[in-house]
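Reviewers of the previous submission asked for a worked example of the structure-prediction workflow described in the proposal, so we include one complete record here. The input consisted solely of the amino acid sequence. No template or homolog information was supplied to the procedure at any stage.
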Amino acid sequence: MSALPVQRRTGGAARRPVLLASLIAAVAALALLSVSIGAYDIPVPDVLASVGHRLGIGGRPLDRVGESVLWDVRMPRVVLALLVGASLGCAGALTQGVFGNPLAEPAVIGVSPGAAVGAVVAIAFDVHVFGTWTVTVLAFLTGLATVALVYALARSGGRTEVVTLILTGIAVNAFAMALIGLAIFFADNAQITQITFWQLGSLSQATWPKVLAVLPCAAAGLMVAPLYARRLDLLALGERPARHLGVDVERLRLVLVLVIALLTAAAVAVAGVIGFVGLVVPHLLRMAAGPGHRFLLPASAAGGAALLLAADLFARTAAQPAELPLGVLTALIGSPFFFWLLRRTRDRQGGWA
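From that input alone, the workflow returned the following structure tokens.
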């Protein structure tokens, strides 16, 4: 795998404001379409009128069914898609910056498989220690615990190395997958079905309480990440040059691994495993406008939100009344892209040696 490119591409910096504004506009347009389109269509002017009425700036309420569909079903789902997509996109950009590798994503440090272990164990062994929130809470806690385990195992002599972190993450991922397989072995057919649908990823169970559950973690991570943009740019020069320029590399890596874990564990806990968003979005933006993290972090959050809004809209409207698994859609898009990325990088580098 190659290191992140340090030199900015010609014209990339000039495109950044336009690209970021375009992404934000795309998020707003997709959010509006998502709350409007569905089995019960609500025209966009009616959506705007209802939103204006709720905000006290004019407009009018819809009929009873329309208000219920808009505010109890569509709105929480759209807001959850925004938070989950932004969290996964930003976490992906941070992971690639911390590991200095454009092919890294949050699963490298075990957070997604770790969260899956908590959810699968809760379902397979019928655990209800947190009531209806058991699956979500255990997924979040085990995701964070897995990252802590990976970091602790990779740390030696007060230092962690990127290669050791990656290899430790691979080993812990394999162990997590074995635990998931063991839990499935003891599950009955109904539980296996429930586990399968959770692992495929979905926003169909979105509610306002789930939005409020993920909001603090997503907001904290998204606000903290840009504060480290300059230090990530210096880290892209290499660990030794970054240290000479005043960056505490070890502390930076620890803080950002925690931020990545917080963002990803919260997203996976409420939406299941949704892969490739954290890989595809930052890399596309890096190719379009260069590797500067002051642009890349907020743009990846906006790009992740736009991608997940579009995928969720397609998932629930393409095969009505059935709903396609969200994780399957992102994998269908991400897998061919990842293959193209590998071929492109290999051709440019002249091989992987």
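Residues 64-99 form the longest helix (36 residues). We consider this example representative of the routine output the project will generate in years two and three.
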